[in-house]
Protein backbone atom coordinates (compact mmCIF):
# COMPACT_ATOMS: atom_id res chain seq x y z
CA UNK A 1 0.00 0.00 0.00
CA UNK A 2 1.33 3.39 -0.94
CA UNK A 3 2.06 5.67 2.05
CA UNK A 4 -0.53 8.34 2.76
CA UNK A 5 0.48 11.89 2.01
CA UNK A 6 0.43 14.34 4.90
CA UNK A 7 -2.22 17.05 4.58
CA UNK A 8 -0.89 20.43 3.46
CA UNK A 9 0.14 22.80 6.24
CA UNK A 10 -2.16 25.74 6.89
CA UNK A 11 0.97 27.88 6.66
CA UNK A 12 2.28 26.33 3.46
CA UNK A 13 -0.53 26.40 0.93
CA UNK A 14 0.86 26.88 -2.56
CA UNK A 15 0.19 30.35 -4.02
CA UNK A 16 -2.11 30.87 -6.94
CA UNK A 17 -4.39 27.90 -6.21
CA UNK A 18 -7.36 27.97 -8.58
CA UNK A 19 -10.75 27.11 -7.15
CA UNK A 20 -13.47 26.28 -9.65
CA UNK A 21 -16.98 27.33 -8.69
CA UNK A 22 -19.93 27.60 -11.05
CA UNK A 23 -18.77 28.68 -14.50
CA UNK A 24 -15.82 30.83 -13.39
CA UNK A 25 -12.41 29.99 -12.02
CA UNK A 26 -11.33 32.27 -9.19
CA UNK A 27 -7.91 32.83 -7.73
CA UNK A 28 -7.96 31.79 -4.08
CA UNK A 29 -7.31 34.47 -1.52
CA UNK A 30 -4.11 34.36 0.42
CA UNK A 31 -3.80 35.28 4.07
CA UNK A 32 -1.83 37.69 6.22
CA UNK A 33 0.09 36.61 9.30
CA UNK A 34 1.06 39.42 11.67
CA UNK A 35 4.08 37.81 13.28
CA UNK A 36 6.01 39.09 16.27
CA UNK A 37 9.71 38.51 15.63
CA UNK A 38 10.69 39.32 19.20
CA UNK A 39 13.58 41.62 20.13
CA UNK A 40 16.16 40.06 17.80
CA UNK A 41 17.46 36.79 19.23
CA UNK A 42 16.12 33.95 17.02
CA UNK A 43 15.93 31.71 20.09
CA UNK A 44 13.11 33.90 21.39
CA UNK A 45 10.84 33.17 18.42
CA UNK A 46 7.75 31.10 19.16
CA UNK A 47 7.13 27.82 17.32
CA UNK A 48 4.06 29.40 15.76
CA UNK A 49 6.15 32.29 14.40
CA UNK A 50 8.70 29.82 13.01
CA UNK A 51 6.01 27.80 11.27
CA UNK A 52 4.41 30.90 9.79
CA UNK A 53 7.78 31.98 8.38
CA UNK A 54 8.39 28.57 6.86
CA UNK A 55 5.10 28.82 4.98
CA UNK A 56 5.56 32.36 3.69
CA UNK A 57 5.38 33.31 0.03
CA UNK A 58 6.39 36.87 0.84
CA UNK A 59 7.84 38.45 3.99
CA UNK A 60 7.08 42.13 4.59
CA UNK A 61 9.46 43.03 7.39
CA UNK A 62 10.62 45.84 9.62
CA UNK A 63 14.18 47.11 9.35
CA UNK A 64 15.17 45.92 12.82
CA UNK A 65 14.34 42.26 12.18
CA UNK A 66 17.62 40.34 12.22
CA UNK A 67 18.97 38.48 9.18
CA UNK A 68 19.06 35.28 11.26
CA UNK A 69 15.28 35.44 11.59
CA UNK A 70 14.65 36.48 7.98
CA UNK A 71 16.73 33.51 6.81
CA UNK A 72 14.21 31.14 8.39
CA UNK A 73 11.79 31.91 5.56
CA UNK A 74 12.04 29.72 2.44
CA UNK A 75 14.61 30.85 -0.12
CA UNK A 76 11.80 31.24 -2.66
CA UNK A 77 9.98 33.76 -0.43
CA UNK A 78 10.15 37.35 -1.59
CA UNK A 79 11.42 39.85 1.00
CA UNK A 80 10.12 43.41 1.18
CA UNK A 81 11.77 45.81 3.63
CA UNK A 82 9.34 48.46 4.88
CA UNK A 83 11.66 49.85 7.54
CA UNK A 84 10.29 52.74 9.54
CA UNK A 85 12.78 54.81 11.50
CA UNK A 86 12.53 58.21 13.08
CA UNK A 87 12.23 60.90 10.38
CA UNK A 88 12.68 58.29 7.62
CA UNK A 89 9.92 56.00 6.39
CA UNK A 90 10.50 53.60 3.53
CA UNK A 91 6.73 53.29 3.24
CA UNK A 92 4.02 55.22 5.08
CA UNK A 93 1.78 53.03 7.23
CA UNK A 94 -1.21 53.38 4.89
CA UNK A 95 0.92 52.11 2.01
CA UNK A 96 2.07 49.13 4.08
CA UNK A 97 -1.57 48.31 4.82
CA UNK A 98 -2.41 48.43 1.13
CA UNK A 99 0.66 46.37 0.21
CA UNK A 100 -0.07 43.40 2.47
CA UNK A 101 -3.74 43.40 1.44
CA UNK A 102 -2.84 43.47 -2.27
CA UNK A 103 -0.38 40.61 -1.88
CA UNK A 104 -2.95 38.48 -0.06
CA UNK A 105 -5.62 39.26 -2.66
CA UNK A 106 -3.13 37.96 -5.24
CA UNK A 107 -3.26 34.57 -3.54
CA UNK A 108 -0.07 34.78 -1.47
CA UNK A 109 0.65 33.84 2.12
CA UNK A 110 1.98 37.09 3.53
CA UNK A 111 4.03 37.24 6.73
CA UNK A 112 4.13 40.76 8.09
CA UNK A 113 7.18 40.35 10.30
CA UNK A 114 7.39 42.91 13.08
CA UNK A 115 9.94 43.44 15.81
CA UNK A 116 8.72 42.58 19.29
CA UNK A 117 4.98 41.98 19.46
CA UNK A 118 2.59 43.14 16.71
CA UNK A 119 0.13 44.68 19.16
CA UNK A 120 2.56 46.52 21.43
CA UNK A 121 3.51 49.81 19.75
CA UNK A 122 3.75 47.83 16.51
CA UNK A 123 0.71 49.27 14.69
CA UNK A 124 -0.52 45.74 14.14
CA UNK A 125 -4.05 46.84 14.99
CA UNK A 126 -4.11 49.12 11.95
CA UNK A 127 -2.94 46.33 9.67
CA UNK A 128 -5.50 43.94 11.14
CA UNK A 129 -8.32 46.41 10.46
CA UNK A 130 -7.12 46.94 6.88
CA UNK A 131 -7.23 43.19 6.27
CA UNK A 132 -10.69 42.89 7.77
CA UNK A 133 -11.98 45.74 5.63
CA UNK A 134 -10.69 43.97 2.50
CA UNK A 135 -12.06 40.58 3.50
CA UNK A 136 -8.59 39.08 3.90
CA UNK A 137 -7.98 36.50 6.62
CA UNK A 138 -5.52 37.87 9.18
CA UNK A 139 -3.85 35.83 11.91
CA UNK A 140 -1.87 37.33 14.78
CA UNK A 141 1.18 35.58 16.21
CA UNK A 142 2.40 37.17 19.45
CA UNK A 143 6.06 37.87 20.02
CA UNK A 144 8.36 38.54 22.98
CA UNK A 145 8.32 42.28 23.46
CA UNK A 146 11.61 44.05 24.10
CA UNK A 147 10.74 44.95 27.69
CA UNK A 148 10.45 41.29 28.68
CA UNK A 149 13.77 40.42 27.04
CA UNK A 150 15.51 43.43 28.57
CA UNK A 151 14.17 42.68 32.02
CA UNK A 152 15.09 39.00 31.88
CA UNK A 153 18.55 39.61 30.45
CA UNK A 154 19.43 42.17 33.09
CA UNK A 155 17.88 40.25 35.97
CA UNK A 156 15.75 43.26 36.82
CA UNK A 157 12.14 42.14 37.37
CA UNK A 158 9.39 44.37 36.06
CA UNK A 159 7.32 43.47 39.12
CA UNK A 160 8.79 42.57 42.49
CA UNK A 161 7.05 42.03 45.80
CA UNK A 162 7.47 45.06 48.01
CA UNK A 163 9.04 47.18 45.28
CA UNK A 164 6.98 47.08 42.10
CA UNK A 165 3.33 46.10 42.26
CA UNK A 166 2.59 47.32 38.73
CA UNK A 167 4.25 47.85 35.38
CA UNK A 168 3.20 50.30 32.67
CA UNK A 169 4.36 50.36 29.05
CA UNK A 170 4.33 53.77 27.38
CA UNK A 171 5.85 55.35 24.30
CA UNK A 172 8.13 58.35 24.49
CA UNK A 173 7.42 59.25 20.90
CA UNK A 174 4.41 61.28 19.81
CA UNK A 175 3.35 62.14 16.29
CA UNK A 176 3.16 65.82 17.15
CA UNK A 177 4.79 67.43 20.18
CA UNK A 178 5.47 65.94 23.61
CA UNK A 179 4.19 62.52 24.70
CA UNK A 180 0.66 62.88 26.09
CA UNK A 181 0.95 60.74 29.21
CA UNK A 182 -0.60 60.67 32.66
CA UNK A 183 2.52 61.83 34.46
CA UNK A 184 0.85 61.89 37.88
CA UNK A 185 -0.08 58.21 37.62
CA UNK A 186 3.35 57.28 36.27
CA UNK A 187 5.09 59.13 39.12
CA UNK A 188 3.62 56.93 41.85
CA UNK A 189 6.28 54.90 43.67
CA UNK A 190 6.58 51.10 43.69
CA UNK A 191 5.83 50.62 40.03
CA UNK A 192 7.94 50.15 36.91
CA UNK A 193 7.55 52.46 33.94
CA UNK A 194 8.92 51.12 30.65
CA UNK A 195 9.35 53.71 27.90
CA UNK A 196 9.61 52.56 24.30
CA UNK A 197 11.13 54.93 21.73
CA UNK A 198 12.10 57.34 24.49
CA UNK A 199 15.85 57.87 24.07
CA UNK A 200 15.51 61.21 22.28
CA UNK A 201 13.02 62.45 24.87
CA UNK A 202 14.75 61.00 27.95
CA UNK A 203 15.38 64.44 29.44
CA UNK A 204 11.77 65.48 29.00
CA UNK A 205 10.49 62.21 30.47
CA UNK A 206 12.73 62.54 33.52
CA UNK A 207 11.67 66.17 33.96
CA UNK A 208 7.96 65.34 33.75
CA UNK A 209 8.19 62.38 36.13
CA UNK A 210 10.20 64.39 38.66
CA UNK A 211 7.82 67.34 38.47
CA UNK A 212 4.92 64.94 39.08
CA UNK A 213 6.56 63.64 42.25
CA UNK A 214 8.78 60.69 41.31
CA UNK A 215 12.00 60.83 43.31
CA UNK A 216 15.14 61.72 41.38
CA UNK A 217 16.93 58.87 43.18
CA UNK A 218 14.59 56.27 41.61
CA UNK A 219 16.71 53.67 39.76
CA UNK A 220 16.58 53.80 35.97
CA UNK A 221 17.91 51.25 33.50
CA UNK A 222 18.62 51.82 29.82
CA UNK A 223 18.86 48.68 27.69
CA UNK A 224 20.16 49.09 24.15
CA UNK A 225 19.70 46.31 21.56
CA UNK A 226 18.01 43.96 24.03
CA UNK A 227 18.77 40.23 23.50
CA UNK A 228 21.29 40.87 20.72
CA UNK A 229 25.02 40.21 20.78
CA UNK A 230 25.73 43.93 21.14
CA UNK A 231 23.27 44.50 23.99
CA UNK A 232 24.36 47.26 26.36
CA UNK A 233 22.93 48.19 29.76
CA UNK A 234 23.34 51.45 31.61
CA UNK A 235 22.15 51.73 35.20
CA UNK A 236 21.51 55.22 36.48
CA UNK A 237 18.86 57.18 38.37
CA UNK A 238 15.92 59.22 37.18
CA UNK A 239 17.96 62.36 37.84
CA UNK A 240 20.81 61.05 35.67
CA UNK A 241 18.64 59.56 32.91
CA UNK A 242 19.05 62.37 30.38
CA UNK A 243 22.83 62.35 30.59
CA UNK A 244 23.04 58.54 30.45
CA UNK A 245 20.86 58.44 27.32
CA UNK A 246 23.13 60.79 25.38
CA UNK A 247 25.51 58.01 24.37
CA UNK A 248 22.79 55.57 23.30
CA UNK A 249 22.74 55.09 19.52
CA UNK A 250 20.69 51.94 18.85
CA UNK A 251 17.09 51.07 19.68
CA UNK A 252 16.70 51.16 23.44
CA UNK A 253 14.26 51.00 26.32
CA UNK A 254 14.10 53.25 29.35
CA UNK A 255 12.99 51.41 32.50
CA UNK A 256 12.30 53.42 35.64
CA UNK A 257 11.43 51.86 38.99
CA UNK A 258 12.71 50.62 42.31
CA UNK A 259 13.35 47.04 41.14
CA UNK A 260 15.73 48.25 38.43
CA UNK A 261 18.37 48.46 41.16
CA UNK A 262 18.67 44.67 40.83
CA UNK A 263 19.98 44.96 37.27
CA UNK A 264 23.22 43.19 36.42
CA UNK A 265 25.30 45.66 34.42
CA UNK A 266 29.00 45.92 33.63
CA UNK A 267 30.12 48.58 34.00
CA UNK A 268 27.64 50.57 36.03
CA UNK A 269 27.19 54.11 34.72
CA UNK A 270 25.74 56.47 37.26
CA UNK A 271 26.47 59.53 39.34
CA UNK A 272 25.59 57.90 42.64
CA UNK A 273 23.72 54.63 43.15
CA UNK A 274 23.96 54.59 46.94
CA UNK A 275 20.39 55.81 47.39
CA UNK A 276 18.74 53.08 45.32
CA UNK A 277 15.75 51.50 47.06
CA UNK A 278 16.73 47.82 46.88
CA UNK A 279 20.04 46.64 48.24
CA UNK A 280 22.21 44.69 45.83
CA UNK A 281 22.79 42.21 48.62
CA UNK A 282 19.20 41.05 48.16
CA UNK A 283 20.34 39.06 45.11
CA UNK A 284 22.13 36.58 47.33
UniProtKB/TrEMBL annotation:
Catalytic EC class: transferase
Pathway where this protein functions: Porphyrin-containing compound metabolism; siroheme biosynthesis; precorrin-2 from uroporphyrinogen III: step 1/1
GO annotation, biological process: methylation
GO MF, one example: uroporphyrin-III C-methyltransferase activity
Residues covered by the Tetrapyrrole methylase domain: 32-241
Signal peptide: none
Keywords: Methyltransferase, Porphyrin biosynthesis, S-adenosyl-L-methionine, Transferase
Origin superkingdom: Bacteria
Organism: Caulobacter segnis
Enzyme Commission code(s) on record: 2.1.1.107
Transmembrane parts of this sequence: none
Name used for this protein in its record: uroporphyrinogen-III C-methyltransferase
Amino acid sequence: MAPRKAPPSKFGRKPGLVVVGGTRAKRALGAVWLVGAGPGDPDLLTFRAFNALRGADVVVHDGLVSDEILDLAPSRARRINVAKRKSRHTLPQDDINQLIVALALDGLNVVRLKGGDPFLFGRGGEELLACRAAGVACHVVPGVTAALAASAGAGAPLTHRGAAQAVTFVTGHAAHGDPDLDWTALARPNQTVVVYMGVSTAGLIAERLTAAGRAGSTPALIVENASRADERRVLTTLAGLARAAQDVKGPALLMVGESMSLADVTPVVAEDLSSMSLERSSRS
